[in-house]
Amino acid sequence: MNEPSDSPGKAKGLGFFEKYLTLWVLLCIAGGILLGKVAPQVARFLDRQAIYVDEAPVISIPIAVCLFFMMYPIMVKIDFAEVLKAGKNLRPVGLTLFVNWAVKPFTMYAISIFFLGTLFLGFIGPNAVDHLKMPFRLDLPVGAEYGDGTVVLNDEGTKVLEVPLWRSYLAGCILLGIAPCTAMVLVWGFLARGNDGHTLVMVAINSLTMLFLYGPLGGFLLGIGRLPVPWEALLLSIGIYVALPLVAGYFSRKWIIAAKGRQWFEEKFLHVLTPITILALLLTLVLLFSFKGNEILSQPQTILWIAVPLFLQTVLIFSLSYALAKLLGLSYRDAAPSAMIGASNHFEVAIATAVMLFGLSSGAALATVVGVLIEVPVMLMLVRICLRTRGWFEAQDVPGP
Asked: CA torsion sign, 312 to 318 to 319 to 321?
C-alpha cells in the first residue's frame, strides 16, 4: 500500500484514501458483484486481453497495468541508500528478517491448513471445487492428475485444473504469508510512534529480499500443499510485479531528484502518486469480484472462513515479534515497527501473483483480497496495543505523547 513519504521527518498519519480503505474495498466488492450480474461479458472481455504463449493466456494486460501502478508508487518512495546504514542496528533488522522469512510463511501455512482444511472444511464444502489456470507451459490431457487437481475442460472449452476449493483458498493465504509488508507499514510505524528510520530500512531490505526468497518459498509451500507450482510463472510474476517496478522506481527517483530536487520530489511528485496505488488496487478488485460475485452472494460466510486464519496469523506474528523485541532488549521505537512489519502483508504482490498464477476468478485471488479487507482495522488495533504497552519498555526509550 502507499505511504506518506519516505522522509521520516515528514511522515503523516492515514490519509483520506488509507483511512477509509475498508469502506472502499466494500464498495468495490458491491460494484464488482453488480458488474458481474449486469454485464458479466465486460470482465470476461478484459480478462481475455492477454499475452498468450502457446495459445495459453499468461499475462492479463489490464490486470498487469493495474498491478504495475499499484507497485510503482510504492517502489519509487524507497531510498535504498538507507540500507547501507542498517549495519549500525543489527538486532531489529535481524529480528524482522527472521520473523518475516523463517517464521511467518510457515505459521501462515500451518494455521491456514488447520482452519481451511480441517475446522472449516465442512462449511466450505469437502466436495467444493475451484478451477485454476493451467500452470505455464504445462500441457496435460483432460483427466490427468497434477498435485491434488485434475485437468478438466471449463464451460468455454479451455483446459483448467480442478482442485478442492479449500486448497485454492490455502494458496492465496500462502501467497500473503510470504509477502511481508513493504509500504503501508510506514504509516503503522508512525502511528505507533516508532523509529521511522528503522522502518524505512526494512522497507528497502524487504523489497530486495523478496526478489530472492518469494519464489522459492512460494513454490515450496504450494508444493507441500499439493497445489500446482508453476515455477516459470512464479518467477515471471516476481520479475513483472516486483523487479520491474523496483527498477523503474529506483531510476525514476534518482533522475527526478537530480532534475527537480528532493523537496519537489517529496512534496509535488509523491503527492500526485499517493492515491494511484489504491485506485489501481480498487479497479483490480472490481474486476475480481465481478467473477466471484455469485459465489459470495450464495455463500457470504466464505469471507469469514478466510478471514479467521488471516486474523489469527496477524495477531500471532505481531505478538511473537513484540515479545522477541522485548527479550532482545530493543527500545520501544524499534520494537513497535518491527512487530508491525511482521504482522502486515504486502497484499499488492500477493494479489498480483495469485491472479497471474491461478486466474482472476480463482479462490486464491479471493483469499488475497480478504487480506486487503481486514488489513486496516486489524493493524489499527495493533497500533493501539503498542501505544498502551509502551510502559513495558525502558522509560527512556518510550517516546512522549
From this structure: positive
Lowest-confidence pick of 95-99, 107-111, 217-221, 225-229 = 225-229
CA dist 103 and 203 (Å) reads: 18
Among candidates 382, 401, 240, which has minimal Cα distance to 321? Answer: 382
Element (H or E) spanning 174, and its range?
helix 165-177
Cell of 341: 512489519
Integer Cα distance of 390 and 187 in angstroms = 18
Spatial distance between the Cα atoms of 41 and 222, rounded to a whole number of angstroms: 32
Count the neighbouring beta carbons within 10 Å of the beta carbon of residue 312.
16
pTM of the full structure: 0.79
The strand order across the sheet containing 159-164 reads 129-133, 159-164, 149-153, 145-146
Domain coordinates of the chain in residue numbers? 8-389
CB-based contacts of 260: which residues, under 8 Å, 6+ apart?
268, 269
pLDDT per position as a tens digit, 69-81: 877 877 787 777 6
Ramachandran angles phi, psi of 58, nearest 5°: -105, -45
Q: What are the pLDDT digits (tens) for 169-188? A: 999 999 999 988 766 677 78
Give residue for cell 504495475. Answer: 68
**C-alpha grid cell, residue 155:** 464451460
Cα-based distances in Å from 132 to 16, 135, 160, 161, 297: 36, 9, 6, 5, 21
Name the strand (E) or helix (H) holding 245.
helix 244-260
Choices 3.40.1280.10, 1.10.10.10, 1.10.3720.10, 1.20.1530.20: CATH for 8-389: 1.20.1530.20
Long-range contacts of 259-268 (CB under 8 A, 24+ apart): 266/5, 266/6, 266/7, 266/10
- CA pair distance 322, 309, nearest whole angstrom: 20
Beta carbons within 8 Å of 210's beta carbon, 6+ residues apart: 179, 180, 182, 238, 242, 346, 349
Residue partners of 217: CB distance under 8 A and separation at least 6: 101, 105, 178
